[in-house]
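Justification of resources, computational component.

The compute hours requested in this renewal are based largely on the per-chain cost of generating structure records like the one below. Each record pairs the submitted sequence with a full structure-token output. That output is archived, and it is also reused by downstream analysis tasks.
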Amino acid sequence: MSQRIHFVASKTEDAQAALATLRTQYGEVPIDEAEVIVALGGDGFMLQTLHRHHARGLPVYGMKLGSVGFLMNQYQPDVLRDRLARAVPTTLHPLCMDVQTESGSAVTATAFNEVSLLRQTKQAAHVRVYLNGAMKLDELVCDGILVSTPAGSTAYNLSAHGPILPLGSNVLAMTPISPFRPRRWRGAILPAATEVKLEVLDPYKRPVSATADSYEVRDIVEVTVRESREQTMNLLFDPEHNLEDRILNEQFEN
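The structure output for this chain reads:
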């Protein structure tokens, strides 16, 4: 693994202190000259880093200095060069979200974890579900619905009782949030190449928002979600604590 490092850090006190220490200890090159990004923070900051820098195509090695660190390695500053040399890459394929709003505008965004739809008021959302152009659910009554990548399957998807997906499984999780009708539908596992269209029924009375990771679009009428094969991002992990093992082990946690 290359040693031309650019450091980024969340704004927390611990992350900023670590940033100063690592810059002094290892030096730093500008982002345009870097061959690896080292991100200091939690999972939320890692997602920010992926969104901010995914166009550069640089691998990212995270160290945990936040409350949640599923996408991060442990913080051990004294052996960083050795860890980068041994790091194992995991390739992420993000989701592309295309949204149509009530006002007629079109919005596109990228999600490395999930695309989620949520009701904006106390009224339940009514959503029609299409897969590859074929209608699969005429009317899903729910608080929301999400489509998750394998990397994001242990986040919001798991909280909504969705399945944990192994990396490399080439599938996506579609998970309803507090579904009311149909009563027995609890979601689906889809081939990664599936194009998902979610149509909001009665958007004026029952407004719905769509979120790609943390980017929200309100008052939507239709969302199309598909996996992007063109955009990829490589996360680097210590061999003894890689993301694939973490996702596997998560299925046996109490």
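The CA atoms of residues 129 and 159 lie 21 Å apart. The chain has five helices and 17 strands.
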